[in-house]
Amino acid sequence: MKNLGITLVLSTLILIACGPNHEELAKNKFNKAEQLFSQKKFNDAKLEIDSIEYLYPNQIEYITRGNDLLRKISIEEQNQNLVFLDSMLQVKEMELVPLMKNFTESSDYGTKKILIHKRQKPENSYGRIYLRAHLNLEGDFYISSRYTGTERIHHDQIKVYFNKNSVLSEEVPEDGVNNRHLEDGENHWEVISYKNGKDNGVIDFIANNANQSLKVQFRGKKYYYIVMEKFDKEAIRDGYEISFVLKEIKHIKEEIKTVKAELKRLNA
Asked: Residue ranges per domain, the chain?
């Protein structure tokens, strides 16, 4: 019985000795990782590399070679990201071209460059009562209501409507900034800026119904009514869409910058 036990132990040791050792097992995993890398199966390759250090922590050579392969995988992944981002940037820049046909870039109306609809330039709109689109190169967008007349109406809110459909902005109290009053002899101007969501859905309403005959009610101590011009509706609709595309372009450019910085680090 004792001899049988010794025989079993010896047999087990012989089997272990005849099987692959840790170095061979680590090498096999590394070779498999390299094969997966060549097939561009990067996630599977990374799993194989991670398992080398976990299962065979003493196999420094293959752990080191695995880390080198991980760096190569990261470089390939970042290069793929860069190709994708470059293609997305081209798509978005092409989207912008038809939208920009009626807009012009200008620095004549403040300290920052803006995009302004050709039919809404101040020099073309003197004395008009209308809603204006405001857009900068970063994609920030809002609208303002602009009233002019020989007497004030003290408006601080607008309602846009057609048929039984309507939307009402928030009230913007007179503060000399977002609700301004200007006076020149007998003429009065009231300019209300609906920033940071103060339009309360007016922009969406106009953009989605630009083909409708939209009316605007200027609401204050007195009321005033207009029918929106076609080009004013288009200025708001297109400016609003441009704002989204500009923000997407800005985000893509930031991502490209991040990827290039990571590639520089990996290739250092």
From this structure: 2-97, 107-253
